[in-house]
Amino acid sequence: FFASWPNPEKVFQGEAGQALNNYQILKSLKLIWQKITLIDQRLNRAQPWKIKDKKKKGQLLAGFVDDILLVAVMIEPFLPRTTKIIKETFLAQKITPPKTLFIRKK
User: Fold this and answer.
1) pLDDT at 1
2) pLDDT over 90 at 71, yes or no
3) CA-CA distance, 80 to 73, in Å (whole number)?
4) Quick check: 65 pLDDT over 80?
5) 3-class state of residue 72 by DSSP
């Protein structure tokens, strides 16, 4: 399975993109956060960490990779550095955790 970067034009045709195009920043962020919450809930229900069969686990996780890349496109106007890291991480041949996704304030 090789993931591909979603087409931003198609991603931003949705409600979150329309809100952003209309300068409704808070509404756009709220809709993106709802999408993240749904992905998180699906991930917790699916419990891929409990699946022993590598093929089944890979198929399940492939869908989540697509979801993560979709969210990365959606957050790019707000968090371009984070989007770049997500893109580099999930489009690599082997997914490895990035050093830091969000910089901590000191």
Assistant:
1) 56
2) yes
3) 9
4) yes
5) helix
- Among the listed residues 105, 104, 70, 63, the one whose alpha carbon sits nearest the alpha carbon of residue 87: 70
Q: How far apart, in whole angstroms, are the C-alpha atoms of residue 10 and residue 69?
A: 13
| Element (DSSP H or E) covering residue 89 | helix 80-90
The answer to whether residues 92 and 3 touch, using CB atoms and an 8 Å cutoff, is no
| Percent over 90 (pLDDT), the chain | 58
pTM of the model: 0.82
Query: Hunting for tokens 């809709």 — which residue is that?
Result: 31
Does 89 have pLDDT greater than 70?
A: yes
Between the two ends of the chain, the Cα-to-Cα distance in Å is 39
DSSP 59: H
CA dist 32 and 42 (Å) reads 16
| Closest to 69 in 3D by CA, of 83, 56, 54 | 83
